[in-house]
Write a structure and sequence with these properties.
eight-stranded mixed β-sheet, IspD/TarI_cytidylyltransf_bact, about 20% strand, two-stranded antiparallel sheet, Nucleotide-diphossugar_trans, nucleotidyltransferase, transferase, alpha/beta
Length: about 220
């Protein structure tokens, strides 16, 4: 069964266009992410209407054969983007949901997500071990203890879902911002944890542009995969 990747570009980015369109190490975050996702999935980029022309222009000329741009309804918040991306998918379809603020996607992570979905998982979350020392402080700011990091994990994008499960989470969330992990945990839906990417990270652009460029340029594959 075909796996479809959904990449929301919600209305909030109308005030933060550099986070989507400004080149970093020669390629915009939008194009870099789509290049990576298209290696394993059909891709639906779902954008708020105010950003639609800019999204189409950024993707034009890339010779994408598996990428479609869809305009979200209503206000174009994240919930509407995800819901619009799910429209028209077959029952039981598999979905990889990404986030534009996570611009580096490794092929290995995508492959593991897709494999787990095809093996029957309904929700798949990449994670990595916490390697830093983590401390507890009290209300006065006094350090009181060291947390056992063996029980701690960072969670990452992209994330895999059975399309029907994701549709229910969006419908039940009641939040335009829509946090699928919080929605998932509140419903008790089975969650499969897989090995993530130690270099995956969320960035705030343009503030983190130099740091992101350095990370990308240190990778052999400059698409960030």
């Amino acid at each position: 069964m075909t796996v479809t990747a959904i990449l929301p570009v919600p209305v909030g980015f109308a005030e933060r266009r550099d986070a989507v369109f400004a080149p970093v190490a020669g390629t915009s975050p939008l194009v870099r992410i789509v290049l990576a996702l298209e290696t394993a999935c059909d891709v639906v980029v779902v954008t708020a209407g105010i950003l639609a022309d800019s999204v189409r222009e950024a993707l034009a000329g890339q010779n994408f054969s598996r990428v479609h741009v869809v305009v979200a309804g209503s206000t174009g918040e994240r919930a509407q983007c995800v819901a619009a991306g799910l429209l028209g998918l077959d029952d039981g379809a598999h979905v990889v949901l990404h986030d534009i603020e996570w611009p580096m996607v490794r092929a290995g992570t995508l492959d593991r997500i897709v494999a787990m979905l095809r093996a029957g998982a309904v929700a798949v979350l990449p994670s990595s071990r916490v390697t830093d020392s983590v401390k507890l402080i009290d209300a006065a700011g006094v350090l009181t203890a060291t947390v056992d990091r063996e029980q701690l994990r960072t969670v990452q994008y992209p994330r895999g879902f059975d399309a029907d499960v994701l549709a229910v989470l969006v419908k039940q969330s009641g939040s335009d911002a829509f946090d699928e992990l919080e929605a998932l945990l509140s419903t008790g839906t089975p969650l499969t944890i897989i090995e993530g990417d130690d270099e995956a990270l969320s960035v705030e652009l343009p503030r983190d542009s130099d740091y992101l460029a350095a990370l990308i340029e240190n990778r052999q594959d400059l698409t960030g995969r």
